[in-house]
Amino acid sequence: MNQSHDLILIGGGVSGLVIASVAGQLGLDVVLIERREKLGGDCLHYGCVPSKTLIRSAAVAHQMRRADQYGLQAMTPKVDLGRVMDRVRASINTLGEHDDPERFRNYGVCVRFGMARFIDPHTVEVDGERIRGRRLVIATGSRPAMPPIPGLADIDYWTNETVFDQRQLPARLAVLGGGPVGVELAQAFARLGSRVTVLQRPSSLLPREDPEIARELARQLSEEGLSVATGSAVESIISGEGEILLQGRNAEGGFQVPADAVLVATGRRPQIDDLGLEAAGVAVENGLIRVDRRMRTSQRHIYACGDCCGPYPFTHVAEYQAGIIIANAVFRLPKRADYRVVPRVTYTAPELAHVGLTETQAQALGMAIEVARFPFRDVDRAVCDGDTAGSAKLVIHKGRLVGATLLGSQAGELIHELVLAMQARLKISQISAAIHAYPTRAQVHRRAVNTLYAPRLFSPRTRRLAGWIQRILP
Fold first, then answer.
1. Residue 41's CB: how many other CB atoms inside 10 A?
2. Cystine design at 133: which of 8, 92, 188, 336 (Cβ 3.0–4.6 Å)?
């Protein structure tokens, strides 16, 4: 009890593990506390890793059905959800080797499993034992937020924490929520063979995204056979006689949706309720731990990162924030977080990737902008791939990129050229001037920018100038 550790980390997800790895290998006295009996956090066990593995299996099933478009014999796959989920579990286990507690113990980190609760600003209690630290980090993540729908608690609904344990493919799946988690899993189950209905209270899917691009994605999902019902509020759920009945209202009046399973994907909430933050003197605002740009809470020796403090619920942001904490807590360098350029990706097919401002956001800020667009149907590699859905949309202010949205195959990979351009404050002319390998999908960036130059290049004035040069100069 009298010993004061250099660093106590509460939470064994990506940010906690990054900090533990660096601090432990530097020789600090580190204690890592995780409430579950395994390290890795939601991303490894209930989020990024299992969902992308499931999405890939679903994509293969989809390709089998449409193989005739590639000159091959199409076939209907026999889908065994249990085998698909075995593959999901194998991916988790493979990547989970990096998060083996023994690895961190070999770095000198004391790994503890149990619930941590603050006793005072420097002390937490775990299983009745009090542990004191000079500096502490809260990285407890988030959990699914449950909507207050009468009857929901009476059914065995799914969340991202239980969906990957399922072994039987439901004939009819209702998905509550049209955010990234909802639409990704909805499309995956539809491609595996379920009849899927997405019920979204707001008037559009993915309401944070560019409305024009979000509408195009909704159209693509509908063409695949998903039933997308936006502006639809579920008011009650009734179970019985072998099915679940969701009842609600939309602009047309009342509706009923029968289902065999219900997936709830209506958002997340920070996992901070049981930490005893009041005893630590850590302030909470709008349900999130309040931090400054150095990731310090209202108690400057206590830091927070990831979903428990925001502002973005992404694994890559949590990892970035961990680096900010390492600089401040370990090396005492006053490094500050900069969220000017934060990409995000929704892993549907086609993928939707975004960075910076949308057209609407830029206009709301009063910025004089140009918008460049280019469809993938005019990109040669997309034609060769037989996958031409979507487009690039670039938002430009004073010759520099301030935002971009890509809808298309591999958009999550392609967005990073634009992330770097924004981070380095490059002019769009530098994107146009860069040699892009042919044939690649990345040519979409250069060609989108060139749509702004073409009217100037082929204007009457430029034509006259070209003619004059030919006549006058040898």
1. 27
2. 8
User: Which are the contacts of 454, defined by CB distance < 8 A and separation ≥ 6?
Assistant: none
Average pLDDT, the chain: 97
Distance CA 407, CA 375 (A): 9
In 140-278, the DSSP E strands lie at 142-144, 172-176, 195-200, 227-230, 233-240, 243-250, 253-259, 261-264, 268-270
Question: Percent helix, strand, coil in the chain (nearest 5)?
Answer: 40, 25, 35
Structure tokens at 119: 């006793």
Query: Distances in Å between the alpha carbon of 430 and those of 413, 445, 447, 452?
Result: 20, 11, 12, 14
Comparing C-alpha atoms, which of 367, 295, 290, 379 is closest to residue 338? 295
| pTM: predicted TM-score of the whole model, two decimal places | 0.95
Q: Which helix (H) or strand (E) holds 39?
A: none
Mean predicted confidence (pLDDT) in 226-252: 95
Taking Cα atoms as reference points, which of 181, 266, 174, 179 lies closest to residue 227?
A: 174
The DSSP symbol for 145 reads P
- pLDDT value of position 1: 47
Q: What is the pLDDT of residues 110-167, one digit of tens each?
A: 999 999 999 999 999 999 999 999 999 999 999 999 999 999 999 999 999 999 999 9
What is the Cα–Cα distance from 220 to 349, expressed in whole angstroms? 8
Q: What letter represents residue 174's amino acid? A: A
Q: Identify the structural domains of the chain with CATH numbers, from first to last.
A: 4-39+100-144+269-330 (3.50.50.60), 152-266 (3.50.50.60), 344-457 (3.30.390.30)
Residue pair 278/272 in contact by the 8 Å Cβ criterion = no
Locate all alpha helices (DSSP H) within 166-232, ordered by sequence.
Answer: 180-192, 211-224
On whether the CB atoms of residues 246 and 219 are closer than 8 A, the answer is: no
53: tokens are 């593995």
Q: How far is CA 172 from CA 59, 227, 421, 450, in A?
A: 19, 11, 44, 46
As a whole number of angstroms, the distance between CA 137 and CA 101 comes to 18
Q: Which residues pair with 393 in a beta bridge?
A: 373, 405
